[in-house]
Amino acid sequence: MTAEATPSLVEATGGPAEAGPSVRGPAARTRTAYLRYVAGKLGGAAVSLLAVLVTSFFLFRLIPGDPVKYMTGGRQVSAEQLANYRKEFGLDLPMWEQFTDYCGKALTGDLGTSYQFRAPVIDKITEALPNTLLLTGTAFVLYTALGIFIGTRSAWRNGGLSDRLNTGLALTLYSIPSFWLGLLLIIVFSVGMGPIPGLFPTGGMESGGKEGFAYVIDVAHHLVLPVVTLVAVEYGQTLLVTRSALLDEMGSDYLTTARAKGLRDDLVRRRHAVPNALLPTVTLIFINLGRTVAGVILVETVFSWPGLGGLFYQALSVPDLPLVQGLFFVFAAAVIVMNTLADLIYPLLDPRVGR
User: Fold this and answer.
1) What is the pTM of this model?
2) How far apart are CA 258 and CA 267, in angstroms?
3) Above 80 in pLDDT, residue 200?
């Protein structure tokens, strides 16, 4: 092309190109994709919470029983007194009005007033929450660490004797109902059986009358059997998920390359295989973390542990509708929030997620 033709070309194309990129860079596109991903997850969580709020109202009204009659304690009362009770708790209102009133208050943090305790539901939940977190939080840390440790070892020794024993034991314990295992532990280690004396309390959180360090030891003594029950039943799930994810990674080319470079198997596992296999395990950890707030209803009931699970069982037997609804909403909200957090953390572990 001649130099004389260049000005014509410039005029035809509208002048010289402006400096700078004509399209957004990869970093900008990645940020935009991640923001859309976050917005979608947060929107889905909001819709789920709203669905739980609606479900919690209608679901527990299918439970047979009259909470007003329970509040009378079985005494003979007049129809006028029963009507006053229903009016006091808003049970005389039409169902749609009860629903709108419940939703409006719930959105402001007011979950109603408990029928049996005559106290705000949020106060009863706040009172029992630390006890649940102590029990299920302790168990969560133990069974998560145990499941990940044994799961990685089993995967690395796939098909060996230790792998078969660990997998078989995990499947067996995972299939056992938690309440049955709890009752068995009470019979053997609390009541005593044969040469085994009763070593632990049958239930409760404390014996009473103790302070300071003696109180801490007493609570820890009561904590042993329910924690052992939860760890025995729950660790198998983490083990199996970790083992499966790691087995999927072990055939990858990058592990073969790492070994070819002379790295020890232990180093290959810790630095390369395990971090890349953690995505499914992270999902499970956050789900279990959400369940930590919910507690384990059957275990807390069997061991008479004064937490949210025991409170839910107690409220369900009345039925104490505001307390049952409030606890159900808190349980579900904890799981939804933890799942959402797991989804938001995924792109940090695997950049392919969220694009």
Assistant:
1) 0.77
2) 9
3) yes
